[in-house]
From TrEMBL:
Gene3D superfamilies, per database record: Transferase(Phosphotransferase) domain 1 (1.10.510.10)
Domain Protein kinase, chain residue ranges per copy: 84-338
The protein, known as: Serine/threonine-protein kinase H1 homolog
One of the Pfam families matching this protein, by short name: Pkinase
Annotated spans, Disordered: 23-69, 357-414
Family of this protein: Belongs to the protein kinase superfamily.
Entry binding sites for ATP: K113
Biased composition (Basic and acidic residues): 390-414
Superkingdom of the organism of origin: Eukaryota
Amino acid sequence: MGCVSSKLVPEPPVLGEGEIVKTVYAPNDNNDRQGKNGRNRQSGQRGIRGQQNAGRDNNNQDGPPRGKIAKYKARFDPRVTAKYDIKALIGRGSFSRVVRVEHKITKQPYAIKMIDRVQGKEVFESELAVLRRVKHDYIIQLIEVFESKDKVYMVMELATGGELFDRIISKGSFTEKDASKNLKMVMEGLRYLHNLGITHRDLKPENLLYYHPGHDSKIMITDFGLSATRKAGEMYMKTTCGTPEYIAPEILARKPYTNIVDLWAVGVITYILLSGTMPFDDENRTRLYRQILKAKYSYAGEHWKDVSPLAKDFIDKLLVLDPNQRLTAAQAVKHPWIATNAASSSNKNLHRTISQNLLHRQSTRANSTKSAKSTKSAKSTKSNKSSKSLRSEHRRVQPEELEELQKELQHHPL
């Protein structure tokens, strides 16, 4: 498959303006030494969402048996394996594999995402267009890129601290100050992206990863597979994309939208962070979307009595139907609850309530999925395994769902 050479040849300068990662090694058409072993077979999973595991370590420290390591190593361009030792497979998708590696000289761990250039073309091009331009403490960093004839290898920072909600459940203590601290890092990263004209379009808890397991770890924004970069003269986007519970109402209404859709998602994340519950929640997609289109949520329940008015004000200024009235990333960073690190809020430990609600929802969703697919036991088992911590992969907003929603609204307006 890939064309290789023992000499590392930098790609000619074809990168766009403002791009930071320029250490791209291009294919060499003189050799083809990987042959059939280099072909990226489809995994059978839906889409290419397994790519979101790039940059994350799912605590698979032991890794696969030596035979499997050898198998995956054989699929890699020799230029990559000359520089990095392959340690473990940590993610897979239909058109990608993600492995944990170690730099042979520095011993620094990284993640490498290996993507089929043809079948995964749309996503890897869009993700590379973003990651080549960004360098920020709170955004996963692209280190370098190798290209062969049929594959692209993206070397990225490795986040080992786990996902946002998994960390909360295991931590034992979580206060408004903790929530505010985490969200400030997210908002700083988001403000940076928006200043570059980049919209993430798929912010959700599993795309927020801790850099390391320590209590002082920073949090980082990851997975730019659905992101978009604003082109000169273009202000609005029209593509229907996102995850159901986190999608902004203007996308559901099929209106042109801006980067402010990311702030709606932050509002949803904040609501969950402080309560362990979803502001908009229904297994029926049409009913869920109707809730979102009405911005119908509340602070009812015991779990909200210990949350400060200022925290609720922050949520209220994000979960606004009119995007022109919603806070921008720059404004959200300056909101008193974020800017003061919830200084006026109590130090009440919200952990027990939040973790109980998160685990209850996880259990309820798992049982519901198992019941709905009782005739397909294999799929039920797979779904139960993936219900961890409000995970929503493989649950994308589909255009046909919005068509059905529009028909529903014609007969039953909001």
